[in-house]
Amino acid sequence: MAKTQHFSIVIVGGGPIGLTCGLEAQKSKIDYVILEKGCLVNSLYNYPANMTFFSTSERLEIGGVPFVSNNPKPTRAEALEYYRRVAVGSNLNIRLFEPVVKIQRLKDQKARFRINSEKGIYTCDHVVIATGFYDIPYLLDVPGEHLPKVTHYYKDPHFYAMQKVLVVGASNSAVDAALETWRKGADVTMVVRKEEIGQRVKYWVRPDIDNRIKEGSIKAFFNSEVSAIDETSVTIKTPEGKVSIPNDWVIALTGYQPDLSFLKKIGIELSKDEVKKPTYNEKTHETNVPHLYLAGVICGGMNTHRLFIENSRVHAEMILKHIRKSRRKPADRSN
Q1: pLDDT digit string (tens) for 288-307?
Q2: Is 225 exposed, middle or buried (0-12, 13-18, 19+ CB in 10 A)?
Q3: Are 213 and 220 a contacting pair, CB within 8 Å?
Q4: Can you give the C-alpha Rg of the chain in angstroms?
Q5: pTM over cut 0.90
Q6: What secondary structure does DSSP assign to 171-217, as a single string?
């Protein structure tokens, strides 16, 4: 059995905000470890290969390290390289591909928490949860959704060349997938639940998708939804009735949600409305569970469009400021 390791702070999540928390801990000379269930900045890695950020590069900077990109708005590849360089250059204590499976509060012991991962056991005095929301997609909940031809993630357009592709959704990711696959020679159809493309679509992309739909290069069914999927076709429920079209691949980009059940298991209270916003102090980011903090997009609950890298970076400073004030005297933690 692996020996239990103790750190003053355990940070769950190795995305940009988790890394920022680690940098702040280093700055405060407090020992810590970052546990990430996937690769470094796993959520960003799973973004579309050709994605361009809405934010400019300086708004994505962490730890005071300059982010230089070829254009004002950096690409996914540039962001991956930047955060890798920050993590390596700062010698962050991060353990990758190590999912956390349980966080338990301890009583009358030398540490406040015990954390079980798939690779080890840790104790700590403070926990920072900085997980994102890109791992649990909203499902279509229709027959055929679990066929191999259906994906809730989009990576690269070449795979879909010369194929009949259905893109479900009207967000930035759906629009990018529709335009990129069409430009690689796919026969693209979009299914949009509302009457138009989403209002949050990047302003320099929206005219492109609107014009492609208007000219008929990309077909679109508005006020519609997928009702069934089979091996060779997709059935769409439209205002004029059901329509069946030939189909090779379905890219269902209907959004993602945070793992709020994980927070509830720890004892974090969620709001009773549909947002399910976690309970925490806006000034310190400490939750209703003492010494357990939230950072980044997870703070918004189901409202995943409220917080981004650029307006979440400050969470790390607020958390470490509170931890410095609340730290108790060192105790003997020998095993």
Answers
A1: 999 999 999 999 988 877 77
A2: middle
A3: yes
A4: 22
A5: no
A6: SHHHHHHHHHHHHTT-EEEEE-SSSSS-TTS-TTTHHHHHHHHHHTS
